[in-house]
Amino acid sequence: MNPDVLVIGGGNAALCAALMARETGASVLLLEAAPREWRGGNSGHTRNLRCMHEAPQDVLTDAYLEEEYWQDLLKVTGGQTNEALARLTIRASGSCRDWMRRHGVRFQPSLSGTLHLSRTNAFFMGGGKALVNAYYRSAEKLGVAIRYDAAVDRIEIDQGQFIAAWVGDERITASTCVLAAGGFESNRQWLREAWGQNERGEWPADNFLIRGTRYNRGVLLKQLLQAGADAIGDATQAHMVAIDARAPLYDGGICTRIDCVSLGVVLNRDGQRFYDEGEDFWPKRYAIWGRLVAQQAGQLGYSIIDAKAAGRFMPPVFPGVRADTLPELAQKLGLDGERFMQTLNDYNAACQSGNFDHTVLDDCCTVGLTPAKTHWARTIDTAPFFAYALKPGVTFTYLGLKTDASSAVHFDGKPSANLFVAGEMMAGNVLGKGYTAGVGMSIGTAFGRIAGTQAARSALREEGHHANA
Ligand SMILES: Cc1cc2nc3c(=O)[nH]c(=O)nc-3n(C[C@H](O)[C@H](O)[C@H](O)COP(=O)(O)OP(=O)(O)OC[C@H]3O[C@@H](n4cnc5c(N)ncnc54)[C@H](O)[C@@H]3O)c2cc1C
After folding, report:
1. Is residue 193 part of a domain?
2. Domain assignment present for 443
3. What is the pLDDT of residues 386-433, one digit of tens each?
4. CATH number of the structural domain spanning residue 135
5. At what angle do helices 12-23 and 439-468 cross, to 10 degrees?
6. Contact status, residue 5 vs residue 176, Cβ threshold 8 Å
7. What is the pTM of this model?
8. Ligand 1 site, CB within 6 A
9. Mutational test site, ligand 1, from 39, 43, 153, 185, max ligand atoms within 8 Å of CB
């Protein structure tokens, strides 16, 4: 039996869509490319959701109003956002948590050391893996049919109308379809083409690591764009973090992040600093360091701290390289000792004494140094010294399908009547560039729920129409 609604993907956006479609009364089939044990895509790696709220709630302190959320989004995207869709996402984030709880999601207050998010972000008890598992359990209970190892290779479209999806040789038809198959961050060839070759003759993307799932290869995104679906965003824009260079190629997740950048200095392979490590609070800056490191030779950076920084940041899963002297540290990192020491000596000499306070934009800064370190600049002089090699880690890409408040895919400016999109595949409508923590799940939850509802209504309408005819 063909379902009313076909949902392609198996992460947060797909599950929200499947649950809403089922609640609206449609029969639903969900196709997840991954095997069951790897189900859930990038959503399984998440920890929290950014939520607007007008007063303290269970796990959220104080208030975070629509306007402040919107201003935060406006700032990080530099205006590359659709205000109507952004506000729709923000408002939905204020009311979705009761629904999430009904499907088994539990929340907990943010832990200390988690980027100071207790006011703005609701944390999932057990993380994204627990959220995804709760949604799968609820979907099964409600009768959503679920298939794993079911990567859709292509879909058939006729004049902007969904006709069928292909999994290998199998053709699956449905009245309506929700695309929620993630971005193209795991398609290394596409990343390579998008980033091209730099002035040093390097292909920077060859040195990128993928923080999440290996299954988001953008197969359907590419096909849709080739078939004339309207695009949004730029293929080089993505959420990119500087992560531990020892992280695995896929699925290293949150524990490979290196959060001590603002407490020390970062050098490139030539032993030189290249950016103000203390520009702003780490939660507002962590997502620019992936791109900064991507621009350096070999796409490598080295975060250097001394004993004074220990215990002041969330420790990564692997210990750093440790040495009792700075020259020994340079040697262990394989960096030119002379240049390394020149940079450290210049930096130490430029640090002005001030009142160090990592919780405010303090007055510890360098003078006469380029680039300056504008806050938390303390001399690096107390053994033991630690270093972490950094590589760019891609979280998710922003190139996607243009949509509107109904989450329909657009062809030549016209919304499709039966093809909808949610999550990373359309996040670029709200996030043209930049990032603010927790907004990925806000977008996926808001548009996943809309897409599921719309897909179900449109399928049931069509059936009603046939029944009456
Ligand atoms: C390490 C890490 C930490 C993060 N932390 C947070 C956080 O705390 N808060 C936050 O808001 N965001 C966070 N994000 C971003 C967040 O994961 C995404 O914004 C969100 O999960 C996107 O949901 P999605 O459903 O669109 O994609 P995904 O969850 O990636 O789901 C895509 C699904 O589609 C499937 N798929 C792909 N291609 C096909 C195909 N051809 N056929 C069938 N299925 C297919 C995949 O297997 C996968 O199940 C994090 C991301 C990473 C990698």
Report:
1. no
2. yes
3. 999 999 999 999 999 999 999 999 999 999 999 999 999 999 999 998
4. 3.50.50.60
5. 30
6. yes
7. 0.95
8. 8-14, 31-34, 40-43, 45-49, 151-152, 180-182, 211-213, 215-216, 219-220, 253-254, 395-396, 423-424, 438-441, 444
9. 43
* Boundaries of domain holding 256: 240-393
- The angle formed by the CA atoms of residues 96, 98 and 103, to the nearest 5 degrees, is 95
Alpha-carbon gap, residue 410 to 235, rounded angstroms: 19
- Token pair 């479209």 is found at 157
- Share of residues in the chain with pLDDT > 70 (%): 98
Q: Look up the CATH number of the domain holding residue 346.
A: 3.90.700.10
Q: Are residues 343 and 462 in the same domain?
A: no
Residue carrying the six token digits 């196709």? 31
Cα 439 to the chain's mean position, in Å? 8
**Domain count of the chain?**
2
DSSP 279: S
CA angle (250, 252, 258) in 5-degree steps: 130
How is residue 204 annotated by DSSP? G
Contact 273, 323 (CB under 8 A): no
For ligand 1, pick from 36, 38, 42 the residue to mutate: most ligand atoms within 8 Å of CB: 42
Closest CA to 253 of 301, 210, 195: 210
d(CA 265, CA 350): 13
